[in-house]
Every structure is written in structure tokens, then in C-alpha cells.
Amino acid sequence: MSLGRPRVSLVVNPASNKGAAVAVGARVASHLSRAAEVRVFSGRSQAESVSILAHAGEDADAVVVCGGDGIVHLAVNALAQGEVPLGIIPAGTGNDTATALGIDPDPLRAADALLAALHAKSVRRIDLGHCDAVPVSPNADGRWWVTMLYAGFDSGVNERANRMRWPSGKRRYDLAIAAEMLRLRSRALTLQLDDQTIRTPMTLVAIGNGPQYGGGKLMTPGARMDDGIFDVTVVGAVSRLTLARLAPTLPRAGHLRHPAVTTYRSATVTIEAPQTVAWADGERVGDLPVRTVCVAGALAVLVPIGPSAPGLSRSEDPAG
Fold first, then answer.
1. pLDDT of 98
2. What is the mean pLDDT of the chain?
3. Are strands 7-12 and 62-67 parallel, antiparallel or unpaired?
4. Distance of alpha carbon 82 from alpha carbon 54, whole angstroms
5. 146 φψ region: left (φ > 0), alpha (ψ -120 to 50), beta (else)
6. Which domains does the chain possess?
7. How far is residue 237's CA from residue 234's CA, in Å, rounded to a whole number?
């Protein structure tokens, strides 16, 4: 860290939460500037945000993003295997990575906690997933992801919602869920783990580096971002009624008690299923098959000082 006031690059996603992140970013920048030298950036497109993030760590003690899991995903791909830590101000709709790292959902309280962590050098290195998929940046080697990589029903919903032009917001996502429910079918999944190959019908498969996705769905509740291994959950062939009954249980991990649900642990996972697309952190990865590897300690993050975060398995000395 530089002498005196820490230098922070604050990158705001203007599209997060229907544009609400812009106002949040302005308040956060003013708040941070009381105790730090703050440079504020905002990309008008994903390509511009990628370009900004590629240089945001230069002459900075931390890169802080303000938005949802989408901007976090882009930042992870820019900062992976580097030394500049990432801080997150939650201002999106899901904020699953921030939740897993124990970051307060209130943006100003989150800013205070990140500043305290920066001054105390409360920096942790967490694991990331890496896969040989279309990179975020044209010059990158593959794709990094931080919370969850998934395929099947949920990725199908994302695909459909992305193609729709009407309605807007949450209603579009709800309509996409309804449409995917009508065409629900199991797929022939081949799952290659470290020490076994599994072939089974599946409705969806989720590879968790962290415990949750989709705004609090605890699909892999035991996953921790610092244990060097993925948790994998497979929902087998189920009916529309069963899937509808399982959905409301996900925030409390109730699906794990269902006989159609199986779980595994593996540091390397390959998923293959016909006509199926993988998504990660709410962003499109690409068509299956996809092979992903858990890379231990790949990202430095600012972690609030205090009780252990739900997505971390151990506590460390802030200076560690």
C-alpha cells in the first residue's frame, strides 16, 4: 500500500439494477474519498468495462467494483493471479459473491468495511474456477469464474431471457422460467470428476466454488472459496411439479434431501450434455462440453474484519 491515503480505483457498472448503481457509485465515491484517493470509472458497454478493468489496478492499492455479479465476473477475469485486491460494493440484484465474502448489503457500510480492511491489510486469496471457454478479454487464456458454473434448466432460462426483448426486468426472467418449464426435459449428462465418471439423466448441474447463486439459492451450500475444491450438485430427471416444489427450498438448501439430488466434490470437473449451454456468475460461458479446474488462491480480495464469511472456511490474521 502507498504511504498515506490508499489509492482506490472504483469501477461502476451503470447497467446494474436498472441503472441504480450509478447513483450508488456516486455516493460510495464521495464516502470513500474521505479516507482514500479515489479514481472513478464507468464503462458504457461490456467491452469498455473490460478495457477499464484491465488497467484499473495500475497505481492502485485496490480495485473496487460497484454493481452486481456481472461486473464482479469481469473484474475477476482482469485481476486473477495478480496482487491487487478486489473489493465489492453490492449494487446489483443478486450480489451472491459479495454475500459469500461477508460484505454488508448496504453500500455505504460495505464501503466503510472495505476501507477498514484495506488499512488493516485484511486481504485473503480465494480460489477461482478456470475453463477453456471464450475469454472475457480477446487476449486472455480461457475464462475465470468465482461463484457458480451451471448448465441445464437454469442456464436455459438465462439463454431464453437474453433472447427476449419484452417484458423488462424480473418479469422477463419469470416468463423465461415459465417457458422453460413447459419444455422441461432431462438431458444425458456425462460428469467427469477427479476419480470417477458419472453418466446420468439430469435436469441441471451446478459446480460451486461458493455456496450460492441466483440471488441466494444455496445450490452448493457446503462450497467454500478457500478449500481448493469444488462442490457439485446434480438434480436428476424430475417432473415439472417436483422442480416447482424444489425451487422455493433452494434458499435453505432443502433440495439436498430429495432423492433425485446427488452431490460430489472434485478439483476438476468436465460436464457434457447435448444441446446445453454453460453459464457462470450469471454470464454466458458457452456450449458444453466444458472442463473447469479449481485454481487455489487465484484472486486477492478485501474481506471485512470480523466473523468468518459464509463462503470462506477459515479465518486468518488480517495481515496474513
1. 97
2. 92
3. parallel
4. 11
5. alpha
6. 7-121 (3.40.50.10330), 148-296 (2.60.200.40)
7. 10
